[in-house]
Write a structure and sequence with these properties.
Two copies of one chain form a homodimer. The first copy, chain A, has about 775 residues and is of the alpha+beta class. Chain A is about 35% helix and about 25% strand. In chain A, the strands form seven sheets. Chain A has a ten-stranded antiparallel sheet. A five-stranded antiparallel sheet of chain A has the order 8-7-13-18-17, with no helix packed on it. At the A-B interface, strand 14, strand 17 and strand 18 of A face strand 14, strand 17 and strand 18 of B.
Chain lengths: ~775, ~775
């Protein structure tokens, strides 16, 4: 049972918490969807637009910090407390700000922290690990993009206060963030001091990346200028503390090195409210040559908190106009879908096409801010069909990293472009090669993804093709997209091997999407995607020749696309081997998979670890156990090529062999979609909820490390391609819906070739 | 040409710089020793007791920081500037404060920085990277243990000031450090603000180890309490800013999180001097359960700066009473020897026998504060013969880590105690297993020292034996030393292998002191030391049986020393094979060394890299090139076993094949000693100077990483065992001197069996 506190806090300026809309999560869960409660613990209360934490849980602090991440595509900030807490992991990550680090080469840098607000009550510091918490509520309103927190607290000395924090990262102005802090004295008369700081000493789990350059102050404004230690990216952050009741207030600047602070002290008595607004501006040398000036100038010209807040809320309202998905009859699905869309949107660069979306978005340190296929295959469709400008930004990132993809191909002895499995600033391969063995020994294990997980190169081509098909953006396709598809095809033409004795092409020594198996030959996913890729490359070139002959000529010369090469592409796309039973349609994940020892995953239940952790790397490699659905993924991506019967056959074979719970978080949404296609609605909903709650309810136990960004996009696809059954026909989008029984209504919009299509499915409205 | 500025700074309280004693380094160098000037660049000016930097060189900032390290055995602090500088590497290392770190397991932690003093002149910050330096001098007085700095500086706004800093880490009170700061206005009238801080955000080259716990302030005192993140060691540091001229002074506390600061602002006019004293106390949970209370209490009871300073100087005067070595006729040798003794003493734990001396003392991050054989073989003799109490502390550290040495032996399948090649808190093996290849590729190379560089185990036994012989400390020997020698002998008894077909014992697959060659068989150094070790173990056991029969019995039972085991030890010490030409006495470094490809090191000159860097690891392994003199090291340690002719033969063979310049810094002092024994005085002096100036003149180009601690002890041995020719006979110490021609006098003391022996060699005093 989660109890919701009805906090009647006398916040001025109409910031009431919408208690009336609240529902109890546990009740909703049982009422609405019948999901096994043990899978999804009850951490939060939910309304249609809000996630509400009603009880301070220090033991899952870092999970909460992830869930309450806010952002605006430029930066993301975890939901850490303004006043700090022991064991907290605060982080503000700005997309594109990477710095060098051993073993994993580069990582997204934890930037100077704009949150710190320390409140001292008669010299006693407000901190939740001391004193007594009488009431507590933290909530994220994803409609407004506001994170707020109420605390009713009594200090060790017995002074009682109510404190309200609210913060946002402006969607209207990407370089601006703000916090409002309100303090009500319940029973205390005396001095309160509020210190508002910039913490110039953030770290990435023990690694610090910043070098102090300069700092300064002017009246109530303080600023800090720092530089990354290795990549020499400059950052400037400025903040002003606006105090609404200035009588009796003494302002003091405390310019400690690297930790500029402005302090306000004032007297308070019972019933009185103090309101302070911390306005923050942030710029880096990625946007301007003079970040300090930019931050100071912007701060000098901002309006007050409430005006900034209104503009921010209005920007979100605009987004939700097109991006909202309405689900009626299933509150949990409703808020979960909106929450995942919110997390996807705040991770997407709005004004920058030289960055992409990291695997953990801008919300945590895991995967070091590196870019994977997660972007093109899982996240991109959401943007392609709702915010194509953002989709183009993401694809342009790949275009800008072509030079390094060509280097990588050359390094491995091939022509064309071979994209990095893990990518960051330049596109150079940044997959770690060695990682510590998880068994506690002191040995390292060699990770081969950066060498042989090759499918990323076709995944990017797929994203390009899908974007072009959905948008009809011929201009972009001719200038950028075609080059991406063609130069990666050049790579495949070199990489594929002809085996005359077998009279077929093969691709040996790869890792497919299922990373439990490495160094495999003829991975079906990889081979079929390459067939598709080379077919598509020929189509794209022919289209280019017809419509942009000059550009076609240019690319043929530049990429050395000779007639002979085109013949080989055509031949490969016909004769690249895939192991499939022609009768049943069952596809073998890779050559020899069916000879591996079979496994019954039920024998290992209950478990709290991945099958790879349980079996060890070597044994998992020798078993028919999957980290994620390799073949099913293929059936989803190229779904027009496969019959329902083939999908069903493969589903039935691979689903029981997949580590759904602790394998890859990418899998469940794909399983949900395919389950819809073969009318397995109960299973579809189960997989859907496993994906939808992965962060909110910490289904996998690793949400503390950051948002599962791919899953946020996967959820969107599960709703649109799965439950709604969106299909693109020659005349446009149509639906083939398979709604879960509890859903009374599903409403959403997509954009296709410059037109918006609004779908509103109302099922049995009268019953 | 180094020019010495005669700074006439009106420091009060008699702190004049002793300009009259100064000599120019370049002149002294040419006059006195004829060393090739290209080997030793001219960085500093020297007097008999001081090292003086006369010109600010931002390009060698970190080298200067190492050279000007101060300390007191409890902590060491690099000579970084109070006001900071871009690219500086400030560090305060407290012995025993280790924290976890990836790849190298554990490292000595950079502790909260007690140095920061920021001076603002009318809002303009004093910083040497801005404005104009009109005069500059930094000097370390090793007699008094004082580091001072004068700067005559004009700000960008045109305000001119003279600033004097002086600091010390009290040798009289190990938890106390202090800084005096004096400011004279030359032409400026207006406000000066001085911020004195504790920086709670230090890092180890990008790795931060501290978590903030608490901080506070009371009047002009501020304190900070932090904890290491993984090992949970608590540290408290408190500081008070004492201002001598309190009229017009406004004191402000700036309690920024993790960076507590006290600021004093005052008005100044031309000719006026401001004097501020920053007194600091530091405690950790290694010494007290309540470090905050300890730091605050101690600070509450300290006297003023000059009194504390006097006590500190007096403590150093006491040390120099016994530890000084007087060299007349060679100023550079004089100051270099004193400087090296100073650096050795400030690294040695005075009141703690659960820590030892890290490879880079407490002065830098290289080798992560790990403990090697450097302590027992290079540093220990200095302490054994001059401060036996400190020597005992160092050996007790090994005694306290016996449990982990036994674990290591067990892990490798042996009995007894097998000491870690690299050791830290517990004695667990902390040698890194994998390190990045230096060639810029992304690959790692496996380092085998922690597995097979076994000689450390006998090196420790050697240190025990030498300490016992020199001190006659039978009590300690029976309680601690004997167990160390015997249980390590048990290990060797298991590790040595019998080859019946060869009728001999062998030790295969080891690394000797010369680490250019790994996985070698029958390394002469290792095998001969093991022979000595097992012989010695039998002697020790017999002594114990005669003098401490109860203890002998106890150890025989505990360590399972059976008659059979003793027979094997005796047999091994007779039949363990060493490859030596019986006619010439030439010892083969290891089996097969003479078959390796020979090399002429002159072919590679001039060079600025080690031969291993030039050849690569594999090729160096296949050549007759040495990182350090493996066989010669043996001849030095067991010098009573070898004739002058054998030494000469081996010297002649190995010296031209040794990488003296960029191989191991441990080698030159040993070469110097052996050169004395065979009357090669020119060579002896050359090797001696290469060791003596390794840090002062950055002979190897890596002094920025920290003091070469082993070399500081090696220098002492080179003077005492080499030039003075100290030999211990049955009746006591005698000398067999071989003084360099320029030395008119060599005076020193050693302690032998509780008696002090003073030697005063005056050569040709009248000529």
């Amino acid at each position: 049972m989660v109890s919701i506190h009805n906090i009647s806090f006398p916040i001025t300026n109409s910031l009431p918490i919408e208690v009336s809309q609240m529902h109890k999560f546990s009740q909703s869960l049982c009422d609405n969807n019948g999901i096994n409660e043990t899978i999804i613990p009850h951490n939060f209360a939910y309304t249609e637009w809000t996630v509400i934490d009603t009880k301070f849980e220090p033991n899952s602090l870092q999970h909460r910090e992830t869930v309450f991440t806010i952002g605006n595509g430029y930066l993301g900030t975890r939901g850490s407390f303004e006043e700090g807490y022991p064991g907290a992991m605060p982080a503000t990550l700005i997309n594109g700000i990477y710095d060098d680090v051993p073993m994993v080469y580069t990582e997204l840098v934890n930037c100077p922290d704009w949150l710190p607000i320390v409140i001292s009550i008669e010299g006693e510091r407000f901190r939740l690990d001391r004193g007594e918490i009488l009431n507590y509520q933290q909530q994220l309103d994803v409609h407004k993009g506001l994170l707020s927190r109420y605390i009713h607290w009594r200090s060790q000395a017995g002074h009682t206060v109510k404190i309200y924090f609210e913060r946002f990262a402006s969607l209207a102005q990407q370089h601006l963030t703000a916090i409002r802090c309100q303090i009500l004295s319940v029973d205390f008369t005396g001095e309160i001091e509020i210190q508002s700081s910039i913490n110039g000493y953030p770290d990435n789990q023990g690694v610090c990346h910043w070098e102090w350059l300069d700092q300064g102050e002017k009246e109530d404004i303080i600023w800090l200028n720092t530089s990354t230690r290795h990549t020499n990216l400059e950052l400037a952050i400025a903040t002003q503390l606006q105090i609404n009741n200035t009588e009796n207030t003494e302002i003091q600047i405390k310019g400690c090195q690297g930790y500029p602070t402005v302090a306000a002290s004032m007297y308070i008595q019972p019933g009185k409210i103090i309101t302070l607004d911390k306005i923050v501006t942030i710029f880096t040398s990625r946007e301007t040559a003079t970040p300090v000036k930019a931050a100071k100038d912007k701060l000098a010209n901002v309006s007050d908190y409430l005006t900034l807040r209104s503009a921010h809320i209005e920007a979100w309202a605009q987004v939700w106009q097109n991006n909202d998905i309405i689900i009626e009859g299933d509150l949990i699905a409703q808020i979960a879908v909106r929450y995942n869309i919110f997390q996807a949107i705040i991770a997407a660069p709005q004004q920058d096409d030289r960055v992409s979306i990291p695997a953990k978005s801008l919300s945590g340190f895991s995967y070091r801010g590196h870019i994977f296929w997660d972007t093109e295959i899982f996240l991109l469709p959401l943007f392609t069909f709702t915010q194509p400008k953002l989709a183009r930004n993401l694809l342009n990132y790949r275009y800008h990293t072509l030079a390094e993809a060509r280097h990588k191909a050359l390094d491995f002895g091939y022509e064309g472009a071979m994209f990095a499995w893990e990518s960051a600033t330049t596109g150079e391969e940044v997959s770690p090669r060695w990682v510590p063995l998880a068994d506690g020994s002191k040995e390292l294990v060699r990770i081969w993804c950066g060498d042989i997980e090759l499918h990323i190169t076709s995944d990017i081509a797929y994203g390009v093709w899908q974007y072009w098909q959905a948008t009809g953006d011929d201009d972009w396709m001719s200038n950028y997209g075609a080059e991406l598809i063609l130069d990666t095809a050049v790579f495949w033409g070199c990489r594929v091997e002809w085996y005359p004795e077998k009279n077929r092409y093969e691709i040996r020594d790869v890792i497919g999407p299922d990373e439990y198996h490495d160094h495999v030959n003829n991975n079906a996913f990889t081979n079929q995607m390459v067939k598709w890729h080379l077919e598509t490359a020929i189509i794209v070139l022919n289209w280019l020749r017809q419509n942009y002959p000059h550009r076609a000529n240019e690319l043929e010369t530049q990429l050395k696309i000779t007639p002979k090469r085109l013949d080989i592409w055509a031949d490969i796309s016909k004769n690249l081997w895939i192991s499939q039973d022609l009768q049943t349609g069952l596809i073998e994940q890779f050559e020899g998979f069916f000879n591996l020892q079979d496994i019954n995953l039920h024998d290992y239940e209950p478990r709290q670890k991945s099958m790879q952790s349980i079996l060890g790397i070597a044994k998992a490699n020798q078993r028919q156990v999957l980290k994620q659905p390799d073949v099913l993924m293929l059936l989803f991506l190229l779904r027009e090529k496969y019959t329902k019967q083939v999908i069903e056959t493969n589903w039935n074979y691979y689903t029981p062999r997949t580590d759904h719970t602790y394998g890859s978080s990418l899998g469940p949404s794909i399983h949900a979609i395919l389950a819809c296609e073969i009318d397995k609605l109960t299973a579809a909903y189960e997989h859907f909820m496993r994906a939808a709650m992965v962060d909110l309810e910490d289904v996998r136990g690793n949400a503390d490390e950051g948002i599962h960004a791919a899953s946020t996009g996967g959820i969107w696809q599960a709703v649109i391609f799965g439950f709604a059954g969106l299909q693109i026909t020659e005349t446009g989008p149509i639906l083939n819906p398979h709604l879960p029984p509890s859903w009374n209504r599903l409403q959403f919009k997509i954009q296709w070739r410059d037109r918006w299509y609004e779908f509103d499915l109302k099922l049995n409205p009268a019953e």
